[in-house]
Amino acid sequence: MIEPTTHQIRTSDGYSIHVTRWSPETDPRASCVILHGVQSHAGWYHGLGRFLAEAGIEAHFPDRRGSGSNQEERGHCPSSGRLIEDVIEICRAVRDDRPELPVILGGISWGGKLVVTAAARQPGLIDGIALICPGLEPRVGVSRSERLRIAAAFFINRKAHFPIPLADPALFTANPDAQRFIANDPLSLRTATAGLLAASTFLDRKARRAPSRVEQPCLLMLAEHDRIVNNDRTRDYVQRLASADKTVIEYPDAHHTLEFEPEPGRYARDLVDWIEARWVPRRHAAQFATP
């Protein structure tokens, strides 16, 4: 069975980001970078990583700075621009390691905001985007009074912590075992600083301006019973993308975190099929073309 390895990527401002990498046993056919949500981390998605690797796709799961295995400045980030730059630098490192392969950038939940903003900024670096129950149009947010407290802290103490409004594991999944995993996961992020929460707001603004500059093929995956994401508004958002190649898949009876569904291989297989239909055949055709 394929098992992951971990390494670190040092960003241009000196922060070391932990990356979980799933490598195929043979030469990979594509590279995929998957960004997790605001509370989760790479450890939630081992099923997806293994499935991608077994399908011949090298999968990279970075933990966002201050999240997951990254203990430095836990729950904090300097700015939305820094988060986007982290993603771009990770994608560039993946591209430089295997320049012959397409780079697909995927975002789960909150990570979807980083996907569209990075894709809009670096169209030549990112070949395609996959939005997996993306948090572009959320149902859940902080209260008005909490927003005022966060705004005040942003100017006084940006490292002051506030609860992330996703405390109930049932928001993510109806699977009792998965709910217990989320509730007891020591690496899940329960609080965020005023700096990170403000960065999330600024990312929302940048994401709203991004559609006209996102031209890459796009896959959108939605869960029918998502309690975190507004599916109708998310579909409308994706329809505004400049991309001429948009695919939407909705999973009946599914909840927000597709990894915790009874058949998690469904969305993993759909992601692989989408990648293979666009990039792998072209590579094979070129490889075996008559000189």
Secondary structure layout plus pairing:
Blueprint (H helix, E strand, L loop, with lengths): L4 E6 L5 E7 L7 E6 L10 H9 L2 E6 L17 H18 L5 E6 L2 H11 L6 E5 L11 H13 L4 E3 L12 H9 L6 E3 H16 L8 E6 L7 H9 L6 E6 L13 H14 L1 H8 L4
Parallel strand pairs: 3-4, 3-5, 5-6, 6-9, 9-10
Antiparallel strand pairs: 1-2, 2-4, 7-8
Work out the helix count: 9
Shape: globular
Task: Provide mean pLDDT, rounded.
Answer: 94
Give the termini distance in whole angstroms. 38 Å
The main β sheet shows up as:
8 strands, mixed
Fold and architecture overview:
The chain is built from nine helices and ten strands. The chain has 291 residues and is of the alpha/beta class. α1 links the parallel β3 and β4 (57-62). α4 crosses α6 (194-209). It starts with a strand and ends with a helix.
For this entry, give a set of tags.
291 residues, 8-stranded mixed sheet, two-stranded antiparallel ribbon, 9 helices, globular, disordered C terminus
Describe, in short, the structure shown.
The protein has 291 residues and is α/β, with parallel strands linked by helices.
